[in-house]
Design a protein that fits this description.
The protein is globular, with a radius of gyration of 14 Å. It is mostly helical and about 130 residues long. The two termini are about 20 Å apart. It has a single domain, classed as Nucleotidyltransferases  domain 2 (Four Helix Bundle (Hemerythrin (Met), subunit A)). It has 6 helices and no strands. About 80% of the residues lie in helices and about 0% in strands. Helix 2 runs parallel beside helix 3 and helix 4 packs across helix 5.
Length: about 130
């Protein structure tokens, strides 16, 4: 695979996750919607990382802020804070000791606000690729 193939792989996978995020939200699976929203941003940031770096293998981390920094994605203070908040969705939905509390925190209103922000940031990153 060449550089463009890697970018296409990450973009396509990210868009599939974005669709899954919306489906889970519509089904009322708010915690999973946010978990998958994190994955979608992770993958689109990895596509940007591949575009902006000489290598083709992005860092093996789920930390959105770290990937964004290494992808040379300029973040405002608010955007950096948002990525750090969204990082929590990866941990809280994945591990049993966090899962129960996270499930109760993820009301429709709570989740809807983050989903809108995830979609906006995703679109912004796609425009840079």
């Amino acid at each position: 695979m060449d550089k463009n193939d890697y970018i296409e792989y990450w973009v396509k996978s990210s868009k599939n996750d974005l669709s899954s995020m919306e489906s889970n939200f519509n089904l009322g699976n708010y915690d999973w919607a946010l978990f998958i929203g994190h994955l979608s941003l992770e993958k689109i940031l990895k596509a940007l990382w591949v575009k902006n770096n000489s290598g083709t293998i992005p860092p093996k981390t789920h930390n959105l802020k770290k990937i964004a920094d290494e992808a040379n994605f300029p973040l405002s203070v608010d955007e950096a804070a948002l990525l750090l908040e969204i990082n929590d969705f990866n941990l809280e939905a994945r591990y049993p000791d966090y899962k129960f509390d996270f499930h109760h925190k993820c009301t429709k209103e709570f989740s809807e606000g983050y989903i809108l922000k995830i979609k906006e940031m995703h679109k912004c990153i796609v425009n840079l690729i």
